[in-house]
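Changelog note: in this version the structure field was regenerated for every chain. One regenerated record is shown below for reference.
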Amino acid sequence: MNITYETGDLKDLISNAPNEKRTMDFIIPNKDNPRIIIESSFLVTTSSGQGDKSKTEISIDTLIKNHYPEATFIGFVDGIGWYVRKGDLRRMVKAYYDVFTYHPDEVQRFKDFLHKELL
């Protein structure tokens, strides 16, 4: 779709929440003007760390809403590991504006989302 993106840390979070921030998987179009922020999690096994991940995503959502209120935080979540840990998955997806998987129908829905939001 020829949409630019960056990966890394969001500048306001580095300055204002250095201990809570995390490296973002995709920042569209860039760190200076984030409109869509995407986190991706594909797990084929299950672990207790998934509970920590769900808690982290909730706190990141709060930071993004506080420091980048115009940005949309979405997630790509897939893999049998999440299927097994439904409670953690349920908590985590509450952090996102929308959630997508890697199924071809979902990838098309994501493209439609990008088209609507950016073009």
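Spot check on this record: The radius of gyration is 14 Å. The mean pLDDT is 87.
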